[in-house]
Amino acid sequence: MSREKSIQLYQAETLSTQQKKELLKIYNKYFPLSIWSKKYFDTFFSDTKRCPIGFFLKAGGTYIGLVLGRLNKHDNFFNINTLLIIPQYQKKGLGKKLLDKIIFEIKKNHSVEKISLHFREQNRLKEFYTNLGFKNHRVDGYYNNGDRKYYMDIKI
Ligand SMILES: CC(C)(COP(=O)(O)OP(=O)(O)OC[C@H]1O[C@@H](n2cnc3c(N)ncnc32)[C@H](O)[C@@H]1OP(=O)(O)O)[C@@H](O)C(=O)NCCC(=O)NCCS
Known about the structure:
Bound molecules: coenzyme A
Number of helices: 4
Structural class: alpha+beta
CATH architecture of the domain at 7-112: 3-Layer(aba) Sandwich
CATH superfamily of the domain at 7-112: Gcn5-related N-acetyltransferase (GNAT)
Oligomer: single chain
Mean pLDDT: 92
Strand content: 25-35%
């Protein structure tokens, strides 16, 4: 009988250089159309003016998910830049758990009115985010490869 590995939640601000490297590898593996460079990833965390916030999940020493967000350039709302649960761990409530956690922390620490996010058409996430309270689904530009960029937000 296989035993479930226990899943732990960590705050991304405490990541060491090596841990950032591992997380970046996971991110780039599962988002091959939106590759992040090491420099972009480092800058994401070091640009403290934009109040980066993030959480990740580990199971038995392996990274299985992450969520990252920060203020938009004009400091008037938060943007969730990425949310990922690796395929073997999807549909177990973990994506919702990470999203709830980041929304809770943003609400607690920032007086912004909304949290926004974008996703590719092919990811078919309208229903997922709608069920979690996001609204205002609309096309908001295009990704580099021509994919439609969908926008949703949630008032907080
Ligand atoms: C999208 C993603 C984060 C969801 O994570 P997850 O852990 O599988 O989702 P959860 O198990 O927490 O699902 C929460 C609810 O949403 C539903 N749901 C999950 N994925 C869904 C989808 N693609 N479409 C519609 N509903 C979905 C679940 O059934 C569950 O419903 P319930 O509460 O009624 O049981 C995950 O599928 C993923 O990482 N996908 C690939 C990367 C990606 O597209 N990320 C988003 C980029 S913005």
